[in-house]
Protein 1
Amino acid sequence: VAVMKLTGDKKLMRQLKALPKSARGHLGTAMRRNVEEGEKIANVLAPDVTHETRGNIYSELKDDGLTGIIHAIPDDAPQQDKDRAYSIEHGRKAGNRGTTSGHKYMWQTRQYLQKKFRGRMRRAMKKAVKEVTNG
């Protein structure tokens, strides 16, 4: 299953959760924007002949908005649909239906957003630190 997960390591997550709620709000807003933009870009880049692929892309926020995940297909989808999503992203190497090359739309989304994501999170962190330390 193609999943794009944006998160930090455990120590960083503990430090972020220790921030006051108002300061964490800046980080949550930045994460929400990143995830929403990532979902839109994945929808644009996804190959969609049967209108199934784009309909399955969705995003979610966890850990009070500090973790964002973009899913290519729901977790509770049947195995056949998961196999289909995997073969779109990575291609088919063998089987009775031939071979295909992958269309790495989730990877392309991650690459495109990487610089923007870092910048947004850096600005949000600076805002949060400024707020906590009173300037």
Protein 2
Amino acid sequence: AMIEESRIPDYELRNGSECACPTCRRVFASERAFDAHRIGDYASGRQCAADPSGEGLELDNRGRWRIKR
């Protein structure tokens, strides 16, 4: 069974390390994972990756994106 991706506002952030993107509404297990999903150059504007798994991220058992282990 595939894990369903968590999204805000349905998912309530539970601890200090979790964060969520106000743009794509995805939930991340860490600030590092959040940063990894933002792609592009700062000068021309960064954006959310269409597929976070292509940026070295994977879903954990709670549907949060995390750095691949």
Protein 3
Amino acid sequence: MITSLFKPKRAKSTRERIIGYVIQVLQEKEHEDIRAVFPDFEHPQRVVRESTGEWYLPEVTASKLGQFRIFAVETPETFRADTTDLRWRLFSDFARQNNALFYIVFSAGLVLQIKEKLRGLQIDARLWQESAP
């Protein structure tokens, strides 16, 4: 019997793949203090609404030229989650109050749904569709 000494690699989820893609692009574009919910990266700090104590953890944060950026990564599964509206509203409010930028990064096929939801929530966000692998 032959036993492998290598652990089989677990297939990356869509969310993990998109987070890795965002990190790579941010590094190429010379962003600083990149934090991510990703192996070997320091996790981003929670974004907290002080009046209610409500908080969410962005998937990625970074800075460039002194401006803070928050990235919410959306897949079809996370887009349908009950907390999506609350997360986006909190990240958008934080960005507006702190002269930061709020990005929604998403997989192909979600652009129309995301734009519709943003209009309904009256939230401003920069949209970034993941390039196909």
Protein 4
Amino acid sequence: MKQTATPKLSLNEAIIAHLLRQNSPNPLFGLELVRRSSTGKLQLKKGTIYVTLERMEKKGLVLSELETSPPPHIKEGDFYIPRRMYRLTPLGEQALTGLEEAVAQIPGFLVGP
């Protein structure tokens, strides 16, 4: 039986996978991922987040589902559109771990100035 290779992650995919892992087991929506990335040097952009999430879902790295209830700040009777929530799959976790292990093998790569 042929073993499937672990997918490689782009930079944006790696950032998303890392943020989803940090928040696990709770899923996050796209704009929340953008907000959480804004505190670092590698920031996700609003214009690419959903394209990247869709590509990751096709690769089996993330799963998405619509919110089943409104967030706490929405009052009863207020207009509400359910958000698409994303979570990392075991394959996504495996891909992120593989990337982290590969980077760790590069001497001095993650050492600051």
